[in-house]
Amino acid sequence: MKIVLAYSGGLDTSVILAWLKDKYDAEIIAYAANLGQNDDFKAIEQKALKTGASKVYIEDLREEFVKDYVFKAIQANSIYEYKYMLGTSLARPLIAKRQVEIALKESADAVSHGATGKGNDQVRFELTFRALAPHLQIIAPWKEDDFFKARNELIDYAQSKNIPIPVTKEKPYSTDPNLLHISYEGGILEDPAFEYDKSMFQMGVDPIDAPDKAEYAEIEFSSGIPVAINGKKMKPVELLSEANKIAGRNGVGIVDLVENRLVGIKSRGVYETPGGTLLMEAHKALETLTLERDTAHYKQIVELKYAEMIYNGQWFHPLRKALESFIAETQTVVNGTVKMKLYKGNCIAASRESKDSLYDIKLSTFEEGANYDQKDAKGFIKLFGLPMEVFGRKHKW
Prior knowledge:
- Strand 9 (225-229) and strand 10 form a beta hairpin.
- It contains 13 helices and 14 strands.
- The protein is α/β, with parallel strands linked by helices.
- The strands form three sheets. A five-stranded parallel sheet has the order 3-2-1-4-5, sandwiched between helices. Strands 10-9-8-13-14 form a five-stranded antiparallel sheet.
- It has two domains: 2-62 and 87-172, HUPs (Rossmann fold), CATH 3.40.50; 176-353, Argininosuccinate synthetase, chain A, domain 2 (Alpha-Beta Complex), CATH 3.90.1260.10.
């Protein structure tokens, strides 16, 4: 039997690699995706081989991640439950897609992942597997009866097998970094009454420690896609990296959230999404200038569904793709620049300009405007309110 394992070199997948090899007497191909998490991938490769993998794939997916996933989410203003910018949710379908491609190339019998039966990632991995290669067997050890029941047991097992691990029983919360964000979950963070420890942040600083002077950053968009920062054109990975630096040093993008998982559990997580927050806030500001009212309002409805589908692991769903087509059409006019003011966690639009702007000062001015006759509003309000007036004649509130 040949199994392709999504492998990070962390506690769970390090143990799973050894466990799969023992249980199934199988050939294990380890696959690690580089999404910008600054890992030592050479060390990950050596660790996988030492733990028992027959082959290791290290795939650099950063450009595809930012261009085809993150930027599409920014076009859609994708936020789950008001705050979560879907950093992990966007990464999983891409990781799983490449895992399927490797499994097909290697003529593997199965794919495996380290997601637990309590979380969302199991859904994101397995829906992608089922959509792209339904014939492959899916092995999810956390859902097997003979697997371990808690992470403390994994730590003991890893120590017994001399597998080096990045966590301890004293500080067991897990992190999931990529170019868009870092999430912190588990361990001491499982109690919502416990305030996060700001020393854990890796992409920036806590707002209280940010500079006492505001910083400005100008973001340029073309068809809703960020293409330049402060006048400098950049490729997607470079641009998001620069946005992370600017927003991170100003304490922007930190979220402490109790969210509703797809499986029905409430979960507390702390997220850092500095650059993504900067880019999305700038994008939303530009849309207020360029999107026609009815289109903008309907897009808000679509955005909620789009974000929910990403969160629920339905990236390779025909509805998500159809919604993407609608969103892309709305973005043809989202061109221009937005200057953002960053200060101690705040990210505020200071100015916005666009050749496609629908803002007409002759219409909006409080002074006398040449393009608007205020007398027209009299008949408009009378007709608009006619159903309410008729109802009011018959009924009392």
